[in-house]
TrEMBL record:
The keyword Electron transport does not apply. The gene is LOC106050496. Residues 435-455 are annotated as: Disordered. This is Major facilitator superfamily domain-containing protein 4A-like isoform X2. InterPro entries: MFS_trans_sf (IPR036259). PANTHER family: MAJOR FACILITATOR SUPERFAMILY DOMAIN-CONTAINING PROTEIN 4A (PTHR23121:SF10), SODIUM-DEPENDENT GLUCOSE TRANSPORTER 1 (PTHR23121). The chain crosses the membrane at residues 20-42, 63-81, 137-157, 274-297, 303-323, 335-355, 367-389. Keywords: Membrane, Transmembrane, Transmembrane helix. The keyword Transmembrane helix applies.
């Protein structure tokens, strides 16, 4: 994590010095690799630390992403020159009218058009480049990231001095898993065994299926988020909605990210009261209804704003919530976390490309249809994940008392941490390597020994 944080910061410092496309692509590749490492490791560590209680903590971590996405463009906008230099880089053409005779200038039949090609003007680009103060924005953002890297280094230093001690068995989360041991009577064939033990190393058949459904869900959620954020500006420019000015595309984009950050902030306390399953179904249905109303009333100026704000609010906590929901069914280990993060990143990268081609070929309204289709697919995936998850061994052992409200009494795996309702946690459970009875141990006083539970 320290290497990734330092790498992102250095890349931000180097970007303003890139003088050609090749060097910029190289720096962005390194920056993306570092960001991917940070994303994967941060999600993995927080899930390993809090286990089934990870909901509000995962929401809080992802809330930082929303706040950064909302604040960073505001920092950059203060240093923008607000001048389009594309014509001076690529060159441009102009058309001028010419006339056959001076006496008949008013007749259109005698008027011809001459096209003039203006070559690139690098001196003007150089002038505007030096008038802009945009590199300062990169330096500010890189400095903020470097400060975070300093905090990570401080934590490492404190751990080396022995002042910070890891929680018991936090690193053995995968070894104390309820799901590592396959169910009775389940014989894994040669290909399935290689996939489980060598490629994924994530557990039995039900674990692989739940991981697969969660990966596809994250692909859709992140793809929906990035597609809407990237093309709502384009839609404002090309849709032809009456009264919608071109500059309002930036307002719509800011509204989306503002409600996106607010939604993740609201999800932090909500996740400590409501189950991840209930939160996710509300998010998906809310997003689908908002997109459907936006499509129906797509010529309404007001509805565009309502739909944008609603989508930003409901889509905000989908990704962390589905990861929290999956943790209720299986124990997420490093292999599973890597799969989740990689597939989510693919959705965030590929879906805007698909939407871009649709907008060019089918028109700007196809952008809304694409997002609505993804929201319908998300409903089907949610049903599949819920049905598969309720058949898992971990869910049967730690079954929630309510679909809506978090239960006040939970069984937690040894090493998991919770700061939500510590007084209600009395026992931990650990599944042994065989199919023998579950081991129980007291976490409270000696008076609790008489309240032991069986399988």
């Amino acid at each position: 994590m320290l290497s990734g944080a330092v790498g992102v910061s250095l890349a931000m410092f180097v970007i303003p010095a890139c003088s050609n496309l090749g060097s910029l692509i190289f720096v962005l590749i390194l920056m993306g690799w570092c960001m991917g490492c940070l994303d994967c490791l941060a999600n993995l560590k927080i899930i390993m630390m809090f286990g089934k209680n990870v909901g509000p903590f995962l929401q809080a971590m992802h809330c930082s992403y929303g706040i950064g996405a909302f604040v960073s463009p505001m920092i950059a906008s203060a240093f923008l020159l607000n001048r389009d230099c594309t014509p001076y880089i690529d060159g441009f053409t102009i058309e001028t009218p010419t006339y056959k005779g001076s006496s008949d200038n008013q007749t259109g039949s005698d008027m011809n058009t001459v096209t003039l090609r203006i070559p690139p003007q690098p001196h003007r680009v150089f002038r505007y480049q030096h008038m802009s103060h945009l590199p300062k924005a990169f330096f500010i953002l890189g400095g903020l990231q470097l400060a975070i890297a300093g905090l990570v280094a401080y934590v490492i230093f404190q751990e080396k001095l022995g002042k910070l001690k890891p929680r018991n068995s936090a690193n053995d989360h995968g070894h104390t898993s309820h799901m590592i041991t396959p169910a009775k009577g389940f014989n894994v064939d040669r290909i399935g065994g290689w996939l489980r033990d060598t490629c994924c190393a994530c557990g039995g058949r039900e674990v692989i299926f739940i991981t697969l459904v969660t990966c596809v869900s994250l692909f859709i959620f992140d793809g929906l988020q990035s597609s809407f954020a990237n093309y709502i500006y384009t839609y404002a420019h090309q849709s032809g909605v009456e009264g919608l000015q071109k500059y309002e595309g930036a307002v719509l984009d800011a509204s989306f990210w503002g409600l996106f950050a607010a939604g993740r902030l609201i999800a932090v306390p909500v996740a400590s009261k409501l189950t991840a399953s209930f939160m996710l179904v509300i998010n998906i249905l809310g997003c689908a209804v908002a997109l459907l109303l936006t499509i129906i009333f797509r010529w309404s100026h007001v509805m565009i704003y309502i739909g944008t704000c609603s989508v930003g609010l409901f889509v905000s906590s989908m990704s962390p919530t589905v990861m929290s929901m999956a943790e209720q069914f299986i124990d997420i280990n490093p292999s599973i976390t890597t799969c989740l993060v990689v597939v989510a990143a693919l959705g965030e990268a590929l879906c805007p490309v698909i939407v871009g081609n649709l907008v060019v070929s089918k028109g700007p309204s196809s952008f809304l249809v694409f997002c609505f289709t993804f929201s319908v697919a998300a409903i089907l995936l949610y049903i599949a994940l819920l049905l598969l998850g309720r058949q898992s061994d971990k869910f049967k052992v730690c079954k929630q008392e309510s679909f809506i409200w978090l239960s006040g009494r939970q069984l937690v795996v040894e090493g998991e941490s919770t700061f939500i309702k510590p007084s209600s946690i009395k026992y931990y459970s650990r599944m042994s390597e065989s199919d023998s009875n579950m081991e129980l141990g007291p976490m409270g006083s000696q008076d609790n020994l008489t309240d032991k539970h069986g399988d």
